[in-house]
Amino acid sequence: MSTIDCMDKTKTAEYLFPILKDTILSIGEDNIVQGVTDNASNCVCVGELLMEHFPKLFWAPCVAHCIDLALHDIGQIGWVQVNISQARQLVKFILNHRLSLSIFRKYKTTNLLRPGDTRFATHFIALQRVVE
Which of 24, 27, 26 is CA-nearest to residue 55? Predict the structure, then answer.
């Protein structure tokens, strides 16, 4: 509905609350049921402030962000870390050597994936591909 350039601003709850409050008022309080944000403490605080100010509004954390945080914690378990590390090494080896990559592609139609550094779900997706 609108954009606000806040790149040079500190996104505190005190800064974000009036912006979101005005946005809700411009849309119409009765037209909004739920607000979804990430789990940062400032967003949690804003969600609570908005629910106090607008009793019909429900705030929820982003489910994808929650799952990503849970997978990050699971990825810190020792044996899981070992498996992720070994899978990364295997994928790196296959992708960096033409012969192994050729053999892989001969028998498998899907591609191997390299896990991303910031999204922990990619580690488990990459593990799934290695198992397949």
Answer: 24
